[in-house]
Amino acid sequence: MKRFHKIYKGFDHLAFFYREEFKNIFSDAGVLLIFVGAVLIYPVLYGYVYAKEVVKEVPVALVDQSKTSESRLLARMVDASEFIRLAEKPNSLAEAENLFYQGKVHGVIVIPSEFSKDILSGRQTRVSVYCDAAYFLYYKQVFKGASFAVGTYSAGVEIKKLMAKGVPVDQAMNKREPIPVITNALYNPSEGYASYVMLGVLALVLQQTLLIGIGMLGGTTRERKRFHFLIPVGNKKGGSIPIVLGKAAAYLTIYIANAIYALGIMPKVFNYAHRADIFSMILFLLPFLLSIIFLAMALSSLYKNREHSMLILVFTSIPFIFFTGISWPYEALPIWIKAIAQFIPSTPGVRGILKLNLMGAPFSSVLKDWIHLWILTIGYFTFACFMTKRFIKRRQLEMDNTTEE
Question: In this protein, which residues make up the domain named ABC-2 type transporter transmembrane (predicted)?
Fold first, then answer.
């Protein structure tokens, strides 16, 4: 009977702290801005910024030093490419260079003066392409567009030569390309930047807003001395457990809705890849969110005021996104960074979300990441209980010292 009463009291305390934390969240404008405002705004903002997915019609300058029918045909083929647009036709490379430095073009194509003569004489000729390597997306599109146009033109020249020798057009085409390469862009057919990066970035937004928001609440508790009602429960054996679970349940309630919005609804609105079913996503997101919540709660007891979490955690977004392998291959990271990354929920979390949502993988494919997240959840739950107990004991000691004085 005593055990039943103890369990009942534990659940009663849990429900109390659940309600209290909801009150704290919705009475704090700063936390609401982080928990609700940021999560609502960021997906829409990023969605509109990356709406076009692929950079097209990049302006380039073409310097035609040959000025022949052959060079003009190549110029038309360059302009016909979907990747680049022939914006300027300067008379010299120096003029093209000025246009480049003024930002009017992001690439320069130079057709040499001997272009037509070399082609008609059967000699090899060269077309120079200068790409803006300071911005990788521009570089990629200019290089791809110029290479495609020059490659197509070159193939046409070779096929015409073979046909002039009496080779039928089909055979001439086969001789030009005996082994054609057929490429298939798996999971991201449009090769869009947003489809690749957005899901990972939005998962990181969920993590960072949780870490900062819970940190602000913890700092506020200490700053405004709102810990009196924690002490009677927290001082009991196992008393930190209902405190941690009650608060965590409040955060989880809000962030399950946030996660469905950011990773379920917004990808459909902006036509990003969304191949995971809702059950698999929630099943995977549960340990992802819990591990972040418990980590944030453990850290929150260290902040002396509400601003500390913002100051300390804002700079971590860049390292954390590197840890996920989105911006740089995970395999290429140094071993010591990989070791640190294993303790950050977004590392297995983003990896699993991309597999489920972008690749449409079955849940069995993310089982390793899911187990990894549950291990982090258990570890950070234990850590959060320890830090909560430590926080309560220190506040009790402070109160006792104040009373004695």
Answer: 32-385
Q: How far apart are CA 298 and CA 382, in angstroms?
A: 9
User: Per residue in 54-92, pLDDT tens?
Assistant: 788 899 999 999 889 888 998 999 999 888 999 999 999
Interatomic CA distance for residues 97 and 231, integer angstroms: 71
- Locate the DSSP E strands across 149-206: none
Q: How many residues are recorded in the chain?
A: 405
- Whole-angstrom Cα Rg for the chain: 30
Q: Which of 78, 69, 57 is nearest to 129 (CA)?
A: 78
The residue with tokens 């300071």 is 134
CA–CA gap between residue 168 and residue 159 (Å, rounded): 10
* Full-model pTM: 0.82
Topology, domain 58-176:
D-Maltodextrin-Binding Protein; domain 2 (3.40.190)
**Residue 127 pLDDT > 70:** yes
User: How far is 359 from 374, CA to CA, in rounded Å?
Assistant: 22
Task: Parse the chain into domains and list their residue ranges.
Answer: 11-51+191-404, 58-176
Cβ neighbours around 328 below 10 Å, total: 12
Which of 320, 285, 266 is CA-nearest to residue 46?
266
What CA–CA distance (Å, rounded) separates 352 from 333? 19
Q: Which residue has the tokens 């390597």?
A: 133
Give CA torsion, residues 297, 291, 381, 362, to 10 deg: 160
Name the pLDDT band for 226 (thresholds 50, 70, 90): low
Least confident of 95-104, 127-136, 266-275: 266-275
Structure tokens at 296: 């944030």
Q: 1-15, 20-34, 189-203: which has the highest mean pLDDT?
A: 20-34
Amino acid letter, residue 42 = Y
Rounded to whole angstroms, the Cα distance separating 69 from 72 reads 5
What token pair was written down for 330? 């995970």
Nearest to 35 by CA among 213, 261, 247: 213
Listed in sequence order, the DSSP H helices in 81-181 are: 93-101, 115-120, 136-164, 169-176
Q: How far apart are the first and last CA of the chain?
A: 43
Share of the chain above pLDDT 70, in %: 90
CB distance 300 to 214 below 8 Å: yes
